[in-house]
User: Fold this.
Amino acid sequence: MIFILSVCILMMTTVSYSGGSDVDRTKPPAPKPAPSVTLPEIQKVKLSNGLQVWLVEHHELPTVAFNLVIQAGSDHDPVAQPGLASMTADVLDEGTKTRTSLEISEAMSSIGASFGASSSWDGSFLTLNTLTKHLQKALEVYTDVLTNPVFPQKEFERLRKQRLTMLLQQRDQPVAIANNSYARILYGDAHPYGNNPSGSESSLKALNRDDLAKFYETYYRPNNSTLIVVGDVKMDQITSLLEKALEGWKSGEIPAMTIPDPKPVEKMRVYLIDKPGAPQSEIRVGYPALARSTPDYFPVTVMNRMLGGQFTSRINLNLREKHGYTYGATSMFRFQKGVGPFQAQGGIVTEKTDSAIAECMNEIRLMHDKGMTSDELDFVKKGLVGNFALSFETPSQIAGALQNIVLYGLPDDYYQHYLQNIENVSLDEANRAAQKYLDASHMDIVVVGDLSKIRSGIQALHLGDVILCDLDGKPLP
Amino acid sequence: MRRLASIFFLVIIMSAVMLSQINIQFEQYKLDNGLTVILREDHSAPVAAVVMMYHVGSKNEKPKRTGFAHLFEHMMFQGSEHVAKGDHFKMLQEVGAVINGSTNSDVTNYFEVVPSNCVELALYLESDRMGFLLQAMTQDKLDNQRDVVKNERRQRVDNVPYGTADEKIAKAMYPPTHPYSWPVVGYMEDLSAASLDDVKEFFRTYYAPNNAVLSIDGDINPGEIKSMIERYFGDIPRGKDFERPQAVPVSIPKDIQMTFEDQVQLPRLYISWHSPANFTREDAVLTVLADILSSGKSSRLYKSLVYEQQIAQSVFADAASQEIAGLFQIEVTAKPGRNLGEMKTAVDSIMHQALTNGVTQKEIDDAVTQMEARIVNRAQTKLGVANTLANYYCQTGDPNNINKQMEQYRGITPEEVLTVSKKYLTQPRMLLSIVPAGKTELAVGKGE
Assistant:
């Protein structure tokens, strides 16, 4: 009896647990109701020197992240001085009135803090990530670097030499060659976006430390910056520390600057750059397209996600999953403060370079001419909506979202309306965006690869005039 | 009294380097078919990370089939009996999931980060490819992904300056029978040779529930998810046991010196020694040494070669440890006009100091503090936690080692660093010179 009983229990257990037979594998399980996303609550304080401080509390881990966003990036490089903004950021933490370069880095590493200054096209950034228990020590050094930099001549010379060597190393890297040349070809060297944000050999040689100090004096000002703080901290903890530490940092007049509109591409040309022996060709296709402020931001984002903005995009499924030409091909609109480029791109096996270009151009033309289907629109919108739920998980994601609002002057409730803005994109709007912004006849093509193997195939596509360029994207004589 | 005083002293010392400890609560159990499940409830965001890790990597490959574990990883995304080709990606991208797979020498990892209402979809897809992959396998799929993987190799290795250095080092440091002697991505000719039969055999041997761990972290209801896991995975049959590659002592009898030309502007020197496997105390000690040598501006190698002398563009030291062996490596790139003989002399001089006079307690404490920050940061994402739990399960047998990560760094003294450094870094080593084409005079042994 006992034996039989126990078998019974076992069987019941098995049935209630396994029930393998009742799994219907023929269709995927339907999602449950979507969870609600809690958006970060932004607390704001303005310090007496005019600096805006934005805080999002996040107490999951004992860390705090700071990101001072300065509204001047490589877009502020004078045409004759490419590399100025990025060199300023590089040398910023190399010495203050009371601390040497090594003392600064030792102070931060002894508390395990990561710290640094950097720049992008749209801004400059001073970032700090520290364990909460070391907050005071970390902030002391962070604010010292921000307010008392001396741009020592010796450190400037060292970093300039380092930078010049880095430019030399970029000549080994097909991806860097393609990106730099593509920018120069689209924008020309009279536009900030046409230059390498790291600078050129001649611009770096002409720079001196006073140029950096002047850039800092002009743009690194409280009224030109916002401090974003995310982490295990409360507003009153930091404001008292900051008020005192930033007392001597004063607002100033910020010179107005407008980023010029780039010239449109008149007609398609094909620019070829030789990299003998390269097993792959790096391809870039596009034109100077849109600024972040475009009213078409949402239709364009939705449309591009289907064209080349996700793994299951038309371009990637064609070039990778159907033809095996590449490890991955994508397209993107690089929304910046000024008019940023559209680019379709990929690394293509040398032997299939021409076929891949042809397929890529076909996908762009097809989207332009016929648009997407309503099923595709539905698919893309659902993906963007679902992905939004994943966007505020970590302090660094939250900090990134805030940086977006700060840099591009988006409304504070931007993320409250984000989902609605995605949902609102109609098929008509998405397809109008494709017609308006994917005109292949006004795009350029840049290819970096082994010309002895790819040139004739590309010429046979008859896409436009073929122009040979050097490794900087300058036409060869 | 004296005794009391000394105890007090000890406490002070300990609190000076007292480290915050992460505390990750999780539940672990096994299904009848051997699938290990690790669950951690974390409702901080409406997100769940689903990690499926198989304890198989390139070290399980057969000779002449290098790169196969990674090629196989690609095949896992090509659909299964109930999931048509292309649908795996489509279904997940439609819900906004972030997904990928990765392969190293020891494990193969698949993950889906999903909005928490879509966890069941991830389980459905993971279970279908674990239970029903071969029913949908075709030669076309294999040929297509073989091309994709060859392109991946071009993108990451062949079209990258210095890209083949690592595989040259592995080939020279390990005997040809050792599974770490070949690259994870494999050689082109072996990728070409991989057949459909290889795919089937590999799947049957290694892709069984008893060789896998399902690790989920996020906004989940444990009771509900356990019954889902049982429903989707419970019926998949257990696989046969197989033999795992074992750690065998490996050494090189004398120094190896090699030179290769590449399409590069600057010469680069790689110095490699054999070192211990991962998750060992000695590995932790060497990791601390590597930090002291090259992490941050004040680190010994960086400060001397890059900051002060300015003869090198960059220098990195790394205790690159894996499941059954490790390599301690130093990589130094010369500034224009410098040769690798000069780099070797400069590195040797710093290493000689470290191996003679040792390092300071302050340097050790700073390195350990940085380690602590790295460990805390890795716990930021649910994916980071689920991955770390799965990895500790596969490679140490105990996921709870996630909460003991700092322990292996505790109490490291200058004496211990000196002892371990001498044990490994005075052994024969490999010196690999990669020089610009036509400039072999820049290699070690030429320009000195």
About this structure: The first helix of chain B runs from residue 2 to 16.
